[in-house]
Amino acid sequence: MMLRVLRILALAAFLLFALFPLFWLLKVSVTPTDLLYGEGVRLWPSRMTLDHYVSVLRHTQFPLFFRNSLIVSAATAILSTVAASAAGYAFSRFRFRGKAWVAGLLLVSQMFPLVIIVAPIFRLLAPLGLTNSLIGLIVVYTAVNVPFAAFLMQSFFEAIPKDLEEAAMMDGATRFQALRQVILPLTLPGLAATGGFVFSAAWSELLFALMLNSSASVSTFPSGLLGFISKFSVDFGQMMAAAFLALLPVCAFFFLIQRHLVQGLTAGAVKG
Amino acid sequence: MRRGAWEPYFYVAPSVLLIAAIMVAPLITGLSYAFHDIILLDPLSGDFVGFDHFRDMAEDDSFWTALANTAVWTSVSVALQFGLGLALALLLNHPLPGRRLVQALIFLPWAVPGFLSGLTWAWLFNPVIGPLPHWLKAAGLMAEASNILSDPHVALWGPIVANVWWGIPFFAITLLAALQSIPKDIYEAASIDGAGPWRQFCRITLPLLAPTILLTVMLRTVWVANFAELIVVMTKGGPADATQILASYIFSLAFQRLDFGYASAVAAVLLLLLLGYAAAVMALRRAMAERG
């Protein structure tokens, strides 16, 4: 009994630590500017306002940044998940020559500071007209996210018994048919988790967004927000309203998929 | 060729081609910059300079400070993320009413974009709009309600706290997954044999988690060492290099001084250090597997 109470208290402490910063963001974003400095450290302002949100949505370019981010993140999520499930399937079902090399390639691609490839990528994409373009960002983000997504998808496939597609192949289906009709429906939660994971990674990316796309018409939310902050660094209410809006889609997505992430990783861990 | 032997290559080809073109080829180009004098917008630069950048590095105080800070930043962040993440995973592995909701809420910081978690914590540490300095003062830990991010002695703790807040869910999620895959009957057998919770944790849980722990700690260490966003957003490496790590130093060399040659040389050193670290962990893992 004692132990149970202690456990609940510890969880409550974790919950408080996890949510307090987000709560503070929300609190400042609804505090009228004249109360912000006067009321000091109060957990909730004596008066609430949505003015900051209205001015962010009406008088800034955030709706455009929002749209750009949505396009880039959704396209990246779809492309990465397709490429990564193919690779993850190959890793979970085949032994093939060069497998260790491919695994090594995926590992090395996770090991270096991405800053080092920004200039070469710029020189690669500029002649193709892919800088200052949403397509260029999608291509780069897809490449950056495929390795971890492939690892996740592999662990989802490991959880599905091989007998299932072997039985289908006995009945005369090709492996590709078996994959499409038998295996893929079973990995839907895995596909959703991987897609959601890549979506949030693309939604959060700052470095390439800043370096490859300088024009505002193709800016995504993170670089837009940073630009906004360096221009209006004193308008805390508006900054936090914009930040809170940026959080909504990823948090909603994550809230829905996190259970599948745990399941997917469990499946991988069973196999060791 | 056996029928269907091409099949795995068909499945891995898109990923491999994409990574080779967008990551590995640029990486090789980027590494070659380390041996050239490359300053953006300077038409006279571009010469091959051999190992000059590496010789400069040996005498560059900022580099050595950043190297030392990288060690502190990475080890303290990963240790706290791991310790708290393991504690959280153990807590969540017990039945509890409303556990699903609690779990979803506790893992939420992971969904927050990295730079945004940096901004949020920078605001929390700001005495004008944040509560933390006032609470630290009330607790007697601080003489004046000032911003710890501007005090060189403690500034590194700002980004570390933000990093820990943001990184706990990663460990909690992967370790919780590993915990849930341990069969329950092992624990039942152990308690029949009279083993208490602490003994069960040391004799069953830890050994079975060891492979996951080793792998996640390794991945995370590499990742945290390369993670410059929090520092760039919160302190830009200041005050006076007090929070500069190698990754943020590379960032400022490249994008403030536009010195891509020297930035690439520093990045090459960081990459070598991390590869050495990963190789050591892999060797340890193999040794552990052989011992059983």
Give the SSE order of chain A as H and E letters: HHHHHHHHHHHHH
Instruction: Give the total of beta strands of chain A.
Output: 0
Provide the β-strand percentage band of chain B. under 5%
Strand content of chain A: under 5%
The DSSP helix count of chain B reads 12
Helix content of chain B: 55-70%
Written description of the protein model:
The complex is a heterodimer of chains A (272) and B (292). By secondary structure, chain A is mainly alpha-helical. Chain A has two domains: 1-49, no CATH class; 60-271, MetI-like fold (Orthogonal Bundle), CATH 1.10.3720.10. Chain A is built from 13 helices and no strands. In chain A, α3 (51-59) crosses α13 (236-271) and α10 runs antiparallel to α13 (236-271). Chain A is globular and about 75 Å long. The two termini of chain A are 35 Å apart. Chain B is an all-alpha fold and 292 residues long. Chain B has a single domain (34-291), classed as MetI-like fold (Orthogonal Bundle), CATH 1.10.3720. Helices cover 70% and strands 0% of the residues of chain B. Chain B has helices at residues 7-33, 52-58, 61-92, 99-106, 114-125, 132-138, 157-180, 184-192, 197-225, 229-234, 246-255, 260-291. In chain B, α3 runs antiparallel to α9 and α9 runs antiparallel to α12. In chain B, 42% of the residues are buried. The model of chain B has no long low-confidence stretch (mean pLDDT 88). The chains are: A mainly alpha (272), B mainly alpha (292). Chains A and B meet through α1, α4, α5, α6 and α7 of A and α1, α3, α4, α5 and α7 of B.
